[in-house]
Amino acid sequence: MKKLVIVLLAAAALGGCGGKKATVEGDVAAYANKMVVLESVYSTGGMVADTVTTNSNGHFSLKVALPNNEATFYNLHCGERIIPLILAPGEKISISSVPGLIDGYTVEGSKESTLVREVKNIMAFGVAKLDSLATLYNKTTAKALRESISKDYTATYLDIKRKQIEFIVTNSGSLAAIYALNQRLPGDEVLFNGDTDIVYFRLVADAVEQNYPNSTYLASLKEAIKYYDNQKELADKINEAMSSPAGFPELELPDVTGKKQSLTALQKDRVVLVDFWSIAEEGAQFRQAELKEFYEQYHDKGFEIYQVSVDTTQPEWIQTLQMQKLPWVSVCDFKGAASPAVMLYGVTSIPTNFLLNREGDIVAIGAYGDNLAKELKNLFK
Fold first, then answer.
1. Collapsing DSSP states into helix, strand and coil, what is residue 252?
2. Engineered SS bond to 71: which of 88, 103, 241, 291, CB 3.0-4.6 Å?
3. Where in 112-270 does DSSP place strands (E)?
């Protein structure tokens, strides 16, 4: 997997402000009588939490109630400078900013915000050096000099990545590590090495859970890891399907007892209907009754049904199977629309089915009622 999508903050999880407030005071050089904006960070963008005007000396002070009384990411806007912060309940933070300098601000009173500044400087100084080398490279045509600059550029790039990974590992239990996970050099989509980056995301999730078990950032990080796992599972299944001599993508999903059932094993020399459905599907009982008739008519001749539920609630699914006494193979991974099986077969609506002949070729899609009866009759002549 070449890209891991990370959502820093689920906006829906924010709400119910209360508890201790955080205090932010600061001095901004050459920024008298101007607006300072404190913006909370959301997955879909920013939301203004508070604003204040500096005095004639560039000093400001504000207090903010933190959502859910939890440590929260913020951006402090002082003109063109944006200062990333992580504010915790009861903290009193002091900031000093000098516009125009790469590391032109300091922060005291917040360990997490100090760590964020460290990450920001690693990336900012690194990008500045890379830009400088790129400019030198473009200004010269001498082959030897270009090769030398290119080597320096590569070494600098790898050094930035090394420092970023080192920070993440060293500070894995901090929210600043989540901030570090999401920093990218220009043009980069991955943290370091796409396929193995997930190791660092898991490391941070496990460590942050010890210090911030109720943090919405942790919940979002876990969702991102879950998304990665689903995408990898899908990719693995696609690769497996492409390497399979069968004409259909393989599925291996748990049945009502938790035992994994293989579609390939079921299909051998048999006609199989791969049926995607849901217990909430309108008319499901009628359709199941119809399938029972086909199953009874052709099962002894080599007809099987591999029925995939796209439900997410195990007890209701099991209860439905028991009530309807379905005689065929019923499976479900309880991932709903995010199931790799759904994506593997390109299912966009429920119900959907795929009819496989004895050779494993898909001979019909979306065959129901008379159409399914006709297809089965032809296959069992």
1. strand
2. 88
3. 252-254, 260-262
